[in-house]
Amino acid sequence: MWVSGHGGTWARTLDGGATWKTGVVPGADTLQFRDVHGHSADVAWLLSAGPGEASRIYRTDDGGATWTLQWTNPEPDGFYDCLDFWSAERGVVYGDAVDGAYRILRTVDGGANWDLVPGEVLPDAQPTEGGFAASGTCLVTGPDGRGWIATGNARRTRVLRTDDWGATWTAFDTPIPGGDGAGLFSVAFRDSIHGAVFGGSLGEPADSAVTPPRVAVSSNGGAAWEAAGQPGFEGAVFGGAWVPGTEPAALVAVAPGGASWSPDGGASWAAVDTAAYWGLGFTAPARGWLVGPGGRVTRVEFRPHD
Fold this sequence. Notes:
The protein has 306 residues and is mainly beta. The protein contains no helices and 26 strands. The strands form 7 sheets. Strands 4-5-6-7 form a 4-stranded antiparallel beta sheet, with no helix packed on it. The radius of gyration is 18 Å and the shape is globular. The protein starts with a strand and ends in a 5-residue tail after the last strand.
């Protein structure tokens, strides 16, 4: 299990969170690592989010003992948000639109080379459309070369889907409202067809009972979306994930307002914690981690009823 944070920091546990190895990537102490993908105990990638050269990708092959800078954003107006991998070789990175075109990078050699997906095979971006680098979950890969990107900060919220390892993408609308500082923050799929998106507005009123939909679900691979139930905490949902090994399939959502879980695929929600969280991840059946300010890492487990 790997986690990342501000100040160029990263951490790794090999014993379920009982102990952690931590470090700072040399020369990256001013960066914010908003996403990390751990392929194994030794191999992982870090994505820093920020304008221009502050967006970078690093890789380790020795459990964090050393890190290699693989890519630096060459565009001053570029800002990259999330990354994910299908395998140790195939990966994808998503960034905000520049000059009306999304920024999506692909690699087929473990990140040694990153190629920009041509704009002509991408949907037209809406004005100001981009992602939110809140939890590193605005992009997720899936089976058989599928992948999904959650967009926001534009009039309509959309999910971009690829069926060919990121070579081409198609856009689909969702019912979660968009706007300035609003939209989709996170996307999660438990298989090739069942998905959920999470979002909201950074400036929405505090009363969660009157907020527009913040969760939507899909049962056809992301081509169509329906509004789901409301997490009990206030404000936008920063991150969401399916809980593997649960039946019915459970969801967990986190935000600065707390953490909630749904035992029925998003229809109803119950509180997990009132502490602030920014991201989450599940790496084993019914077990995962929530991460929050101040280096907080909370392990959660879901046990079947007797």
